[in-house]
From TrEMBL:
The species this protein was found in: Candidatus Nomurabacteria bacterium RIFCSPHIGHO2_02_FULL_35_13
Name assigned to this protein: Short-chain dehydrogenase
Entry keyword set: NADP, Oxidoreductase
Top-level division of the source organism's lineage: Bacteria
GO molecular function, one term: oxidoreductase activity
């Protein structure tokens, strides 16, 4: 896929992997729109990156992003569901289920909302791609991280299913391993020092899209 002048929307695009993706697409000549529910983070965006305040847990707010894209650019080429949160390690029976529900709202329902609004628009215009940033936690069981893994397994099942429903639309599942981002806050895992640079992960995602036949399911590990 040629990325010059492609319109790319990234949820959770103001930091971590989302920001790295925005910069990587920008280097390839794409036009970038990032979404965040934190308005302060949108103020300090790099030049040439547009920011829109939107909460992925609210489908109507993501629909407003689609409306903005349609009015400003007339098309959408790539929608990336990247927004996500993580919970500190704990035994399954000790997790605060209110916090687990908040995580599922973002990781699972947020990605569903983004995919739904993007699919409707992509089907009408006749082209476009969706990337769901999942995690390699969707491929294995991880002790002390059962709830996060469960949210990613849900994302994985949803993404595979919408790919089967929409054979004529490129829908990608991206499974990165651990990255050095602030998703962990003050609760970094013990092996955090071994985690990947999000910029290198973003470049691999972008390079995959540029292939003549990109991998629909891309696993990225050290």
């Amino acid at each position: 896929m040629e990325l010059e002048d492609k319109i790319v929307v990234i949820t959770g695009g103001t930091k971590g992997l989302g920001k790295a993706l925005a910069l990587s697409f920008l280097k390839n000549g794409s036009k970038i729109v990032v979404c965040s529910r934190n308005e302060d983070e949108l103020i300090n965006l790099e030049k040439d990156i547009l920011g829109i305040k939107a909460d992925v847990t609210k489908e109507d707010e993501l629909q407003k992003v689609i409306n903005f894209i349609k009015e400003k650019f007339g098309k959408l080429d790539i929608w990336i569901n990247n927004a996500g949160i993580w919970l500190p390690h704990s035994l399954s029976e000790d997790f605060d289920m209110d916090k687990v529900k908040e995580m599922f709202d973002v990781n699972v329902f947020g990605s569903m909302n983004g995919s739904r609004v993007a699919l409707r628009f992509i089907k009408k215009q006749g082209f476009g791609s969706i990337l769901n940033i999942i995690s390699d936690s969707a491929l294995i069981g991880r002790p002390m991280s059962s709830m996060y893994s469960a949210s990613k397994w849900a994302m994985n099942g949803f993404t595979k299913s919408i790919r089967e429903e929409n054979k004529n639309i490129s829908i990608f599942s991206i499974y990165p391993g651990g990255m050095k981002t602030d998703i962990f806050g003050e609760n970094k895992p013990e092996n955090y020092g071994e985690f990947m640079d999000p910029n290198s992960v973003a470049d691999k995602i972008v390079e995959n899209l540029k292939k003549d036949i990109p991998e629909e399911e891309l696993i990225i590990r050290r």
